[in-house]
Amino acid sequence: MAMMNAKQYEESLRKLKLNVWMFGKRVENVVDDPIIRPSMNAVALTYELAHRPEHEDLMTATSHITGKKTNRFCHIHQNTGDLVKKTKMGRLLGMRTGCCFQRCVGMDTLNALSITTYNIDAKYGTEYNKRFLKYLKYVQENDLTCCGAMTDTKGDRSLPPHKQKDPDLFLHVVEERPDGIVVSGNKNHQTGAVNSHEIITMPTITMRKEDKDYAISFAVPSDTKGITYIMGRQSCDTRKTEGMTMDRGNMHYGGHEALVIFDKVFVPWDRVFMYKEYDFTTELVENFAAYHRQSYACKSGVGDVLIGAAQSIAEYNGVENASHIKDKIVEMNHLNETLYCGSISCAAEGHKEACGTYLVDVLLANVSKHNVTRFPYLIARLAQDIAGGLMVTLPSAADFDSPDIGKWLKKFYQGKADVPTEHRLRMLRLIENLTLGTAAVGYLAESMHGAGSPQAQRIMISRRINIKEKQRLAKELCGIEKGDHLS
Ligand code: SF4
Ligand code: FE
Fold first, then answer.
1. What ligand 1 atom has the least distance to the C-alpha of 295?
2. Is 45 in the pocket of ligand 1 (CB under 6 A)?
3. Can you tell me the distance from the alpha carbon of 16 to that of 224, in angstroms, rounded to the nearest whole number?
4. How far apart are CA 487 and CA 482, in angstroms?
5. Phi-psi region of 180 (alpha: psi -120 to 50; beta: other; left: phi over 0)
6. Rounded CA gap, 99 and 255, in Å?
7. What is the pLDDT of residue 485?
8. Is the CB of 104 within 6 Å of ligand 1?
9. CATH architecture of 293-474
10. Alpha carbon distance 54, 92 (integer Å)
11. 299 within 8 A of 343, measured Cβ to Cβ
């Protein structure tokens, strides 16, 4: 099958029999549900742009296993050029959707598994990499969206998996059979889960010998028997049920996260990519995290939208020439481009792993994501500063459209005389959406916790820096230790 377009992707989702729950009820029609559909639209754009000649270079790649053209989201990076294009693709989609477009998690999982399956085989003589490459071919040839599932709910954080009162707080094997394994547990905050054809799991932390039943990685079709999805709420989510009013802020796109429950789910052996090799859990977690931390270039794309909205509202209000507004716009751009620099740099400094896959520079990827836990909040603060209080006191679109009171809102909420009042209100709603509403989940809270919370990056930074070497340099220059060029 060739690469799908947006419509084909949507139709492929309609064939899935997902067990999805929201507001205490089963969602019978997931694709057309008004709260879920904007997130499907965002993933659909990853399919649509792959068919546009102007985006072909970023959105597609040549498969290293089949030699055929594939969507870049299904590709294994073959050089640093691929990694740089991945960063650029993330920014492009962030700026086009103004939200989380979800598909990167699966791409990052595939790349991390390409490395770890190879390394496990090299040590233990297993056949995980062969299985993985067969699975990758299936994903590429069917142009699938994969949900990369790492984070378990984890229960008591002071206890390892095997000591939890309820063993299902971490995903684990409950039965080994001749034809495969049976697993139970959960994965939480799963981005794009109900827009995915496949779920690929990984352990969430380093596992020790006692936790070997939890050291598993596998792939299952998203509608496999025993899997339940419970949708997470987002602030202002029910505005999407009010029709296509300007109160939505973003008229087309959104993201979603779900709790994914595995209740005695069967996985055939040819879809198992790690089974009790607990000594490879750290590698898999760290490599996935590094790839996904690079992926946060998406936020510089969303930042482009927010900066554009801030400049526009300043113009609609007639304050665009005030020196402090100009300075704030420069500050927002500086912060946003710094995020982009981080993602580009860890890609450009990538290296080849033993299996041939290119991995980002892990230290730089962590530094980059650490900035992402801060800068979007600063950019959002400046956008709210420029927008003014009206963003949060504005009456509803229904009031604006009312034949009785709409005239008052049009009269009193006008800004510059040549700007339609509605444009001003729409722009304010977009800023609200990005900094307080449904898209703030992706732009802010996900920037904080997605791909690991700030402390996770600080731990990686502390592990990866060579502090002794820095001390040696200092000591040499001040004459404490003899160096090459001291006289
Ligand atoms: Fe991709 Fe960004 Fe969403 Fe993560 S937050 S899935 S990197 S768009
Ligand atoms: Fe994420």
1. 7
2. no
3. 9
4. 9
5. left
6. 6
7. 59
8. yes
9. Up-down Bundle (1.20)
10. 12
11. no
d(CA 65, CA 133): 8
- Ligand 1 in reach of 99 Cβ (< 6 A): no
Q: What is the mean pLDDT of each run of 10 residues along the chain (487 residues)?
A: 94 98 98 98 98 98 98 98 98 98 98 98 98 98 98 97 98 98 98 98 98 98 98 96 95 97 98 98 98 98 98 98 98 98 98 98 98 98 98 97 97 96 97 96 95 96 97 95 61
Closest residue by Cα to atom 5, ligand 1, is 100
Residues 6 or more apart whose Cβ sits within 8 Å of residue 427: 309, 312, 313, 316
d(CA 170, CA 187): 8
Is residue 105 in contact with ligand 1, taking CB distance under 6 Å?
yes
**pLDDT attached to residue 2:** 87
Q: How far apart are CA 250 and CA 98, in angstroms?
A: 8
- The residues that are catalytic are 100, 104, 191, 257, 292, 296, 298, 446
SS3 content of the chain, % helix, strand, coil (to 5): 55, 15, 30
**Probe ligand 1: pick from 110, 145, 295, 444, max atoms within 8 Å of CB?**
295
Q: Taking the model in full, what pTM does it have?
A: 0.97
Distance 148 CA to ligand 2 centre (A): 10
> How many whole angstroms from 340 Cα to the centroid of ligand 1?
14
Give the helix/strand (H/E) hosting 337: helix 323-348
> Ligand 1: which residue has its CA nearest to atom 6?
102
Q: Which pair of tokens denotes residue 39?
A: 């997130």
In ligand 1, the atom with minimum distance to the C-alpha of 104 is 1
Question: At a CB cut-off of 8 Å and minimum separation 6, what does 450 contact?
Answer: 189, 191, 292, 296
Instruction: Answer yes or no: is the C-beta of 296 below 6 A from any ligand 1 atom.
Output: yes
- Tokens found for residue 438: 């449904």
Tokens of 351: 């290296």
Domain ranges of the chain: 293-474
Q: What's the gap in Å between 319 CA and the centre of ligand 1?
A: 34
Q: How far is CA 309 from CA 59, 99, 236, 301, in A?
A: 26, 14, 19, 13
Say yes or no: CB of residue 257 within 6 Å of ligand 1: no
Candidates 339, 343, 446, 449: which one to mutate for ligand 1, based on the most atoms within 8 Å of Cβ? 446
CA distance 79 to 286: 20
The span from the CA of 147 to the CA of 143, in Å, is 13
